[in-house]
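Entry 14. Structure prediction run on the chain below.
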Amino acid sequence: MSERLVALLNGREIGTVDYDKSRLSFTYAQTWRDDPEAYPLSLSMPLGAATHGHARVDAFLWGLLPDNDRVLQTWAQRFQVSPRNAFRLIAHVGEDCAGAVQFVRPDRVEALVAGGSTDKVQWLTTKDVAHRLADLVRDPAEGRVASDRGQFSLAGAQPKTALLKEKGRWGVPQGRIPTTHILKPPTGDWVGHAENEHFCLQLARAVGLMVPNSAVEHFEDQVTIVVERFDRLHTKAGWTRIHQEDFCQTLGVHPAKKYESDGGPGVAALADVLRAHSTVAEEDLWSLMDGVAFNWLIAGTDAHAKNYALLLGPGVVRLAPFYDLASILPYANIDRRKAKLAMKLGGEYLLQNIALRHWQRLAQTVHLPAEALVDRVRNLARQLPDQIEAVRKACLKEKLMPNAVDPVAQALMERMPICFRQLGL
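Output returned:
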């Protein structure tokens, strides 16, 4: 017997996901296809076809789930489903995902469309949030506690949770009320990662890249980076969801292949998507190159296709703000001589091997003027030394611990002369 989830976009049914004999399909509601303001669930599933098949639907659903086997295994045990079945996992956590679409069981549709009684917030004290973060550090599957009714699912390997922040209060939302912020405490070998990510996000903003707002906050004895969701918007009517998808979802690629070395998308594939679909293709293409260059400059080695995304809306496709920016350099257990990028740059993965000729090759690959691309990368590089110091001072003013901030700043400053030489400066 087939099973079904209904896709709701801000309370409106846009289609259904059906699971029948281990095969998935997604079918758009005809009323949505007929709407002149309609836009696709994913660019991999255009509105021109009413129904889309298993491979693309499966890749899209997996793209909404954590890339963490321990989390998936715990959820599977909790919900009595297989950890290898994206549909059945999403059936339990799909009411708050990346983007604007909620995936809900048919018996929940009426209540969610109507809103009201289901739209509630369980408000938390500072102590409550601290306990949740401590639990998350201990077990990355503990993004919610047993008594929570609000659902959420976030992609990525790092332990994280999502909460609503409103008027200085934190809460667990349910119904149509979305989460608004992502909280990521440092865990395992990545001590100081919260400060690292916040530092790199602020550095990216300082040199002109579009990034979400972030802060490092303390909840009693717990420290976490708090990132404001760019797929949420506060209006007079309250919080609303903005649709987005990462580039693996856009290209119908399973997240297990997010790295180019595993067969996933490279920079050229992302550039091709922007050329074909972006509302302002040239602007977004150059912005993508800025993001690629910035990740190379800071040694952001985890910038794979799932860490770049698109925003989708009525008649609009735009490159999303850059997120999950962090440098590998502050960690002593990393051999910098072997550090590799997640996507090849002009045919080269190894950070230490990338030279001017690789940027020129990349320009050829993405059909941009080589001289203009090289100038852009050089200009970005020239800004970094002063901005690294400025961001370091700003972070210390925010009362971040020097022993977490200074190693990031120092490692990045030490890298700058290397990048300058590689760029022929």
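The chain has a mean pLDDT of 92.
Filed with the rest of this week's runs.
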